[in-house]
Amino acid sequence: MTAAPGLSRIRIGSAPDSWGVWFPDDPHQVPWRQFLDEVSESGYEWIELGPYGYLPTDPDVLRAETERRGLKVSAGTVFTGLHHGPSVWDSTWEQVAKVAALARSQGAEHLVVIPSFWRDDKTGAVLEDRELTAEQWRELARGYERLAREVRETYGLRIVVHPHADTHIDTEDNVTRFLDATDPDLVSLCLDTGHYAYCGGDNVKLIETYGSRIGYLHLKQVDPEVLAAVRAEDLPFGPAVGRGVMCEPPAGVPALQPVLTAAQGLGIELFAIVEQDMYPCEPDRPLPIARRTRAYLRSCGA
């Protein structure tokens, strides 16, 4: 279905995450062919690669598998710990290069970059301080600017940095600090509506205030009641997802219609990729949710 004129600049897609996929290989996850079949059946045209190695990494095989299902790739995803400075550059670039090359081979134009977790998202083990020092903030900003230049020059992709729960780029204060510290010509955001709400941020306000920095969207909602319990217990993100903190739209927050309307008002083409975190999940659970979510987004004009 073609988007209504009001949201004509928004390109809707989904991702392996909406099928409970967090890892390249895991017995709790659906096979990759099932994901591709079902995301296509649900009415989506665009997908992300998900964790590197989940979908085929041979470009020709991946292209054949997506094309025969009418699918196209919008982006790849990597995790980085660039606040640690130059010592992690080589290992970071090694993983970035693999993902960026595969994404580019499929015609993608974006690389979603997620900061590393300060605590383990499964066990809750604290890996480092929750707050960065001033020097670490400087290294973070320099690192992302360098990464943006290298990825653009080598692969022709634009990085979009994804604020994420249990990372150092999470709350409104930390997101705006990051934006103010980085070159707008190099670094844009992947605004994940669920993660930003999870961390207390106002999505519409961010779009209206920093609109020129929004380069990509992840569409997600949070269950306010579950979130209240998660905050009260200071749960790590993994167990919070297991409790259902990220829920099927339109049951949660933020309301997606105002977010999409604000994004449309930016006057640029934007991907809006559905990501409903639900690892682990039963293999028959994602498809009905995906169908209902796609129908709901059509009702919003997307």
Automatic annotation (TrEMBL):
Residues 36-238 form the Xylose isomerase-like TIM barrel domain. Pfam families: AP_endonuc_2. This is Inosose dehydratase. It comes from the Bacteria. InterPro entries: IolE/XylAMocC-like, Xyl_isomerase-like_sf, Xyl_isomerase-like_TIM-brl. PANTHER family: HYDROXYPYRUVATE ISOMERASE, INOSOSE DEHYDRATASE.
